[in-house]
């Protein structure tokens, strides 16, 4: 994988746009899965007598989310600071979109 600072200018600009899109897409998937996990935990069928199934599913989902996010950010950091910052900016933009969607559907 070439480092960001060794790319020609045209490819560097395209790379930055793709890193922003990567962060946004990853963020949308991350926060959608987080919302689904919370909805599963708070579903009416989940009572305190059998929390093992819902709790294990929530734990595994959280570990997968964190692992995927850490892996993508680690690989992005190998390309340099600017691609990492743009990927993080995409994540923050996705967080804003997810929060707005959540508020729109909240009672």
Please characterize this protein's 3D structure.
Helix content is 79%, strand content 0%. By secondary structure, it is mostly helical. It has one domain. Helix 1 packs antiparallel against helix 2 and helix 1 runs parallel beside helix 3 (81-105). The N and C termini lie far apart (47 Å). Keywords: Membrane, Transmembrane, Transmembrane helix. It comes from Nitrospirillum iridis. Pfam families: AtpR. InterPro entries: AtpR-like.
Average pLDDT taken over every residue: 86
Q: How many strand units? A: 0
- Helix run count: 3
Strand content: under 5%
Class from secondary-structure proportions: mainly alpha
Shape: elongated
Q: How many domains is the backbone divided into?
A: 1
Helical residue percent?
over 70%
Q: Rg, please? A: 18 Å
End-to-end span in angstroms? 47 Å
Any low-confidence stretches, pLDDT <50, length ≥5? none
User: How do the SSEs run, as a string of H and E?
Assistant: HHH
Biggest β-sheet description: none
Organism: Nitrospirillum iridis
Protein name: ATP synthase subunit I
Keywords: Membrane, Transmembrane, Transmembrane helix
Transmembrane segments: 12-31, 52-75, 81-98
Short characterization:
With about 110 residues, the protein is mostly helical. It contains three helices and no strands. This is ATP synthase subunit I.
Draw up the topology in text.
Layout: H1 9-41, H2 51-77, H3 81-105
Helix pairs in contact: 1-2, 1-3
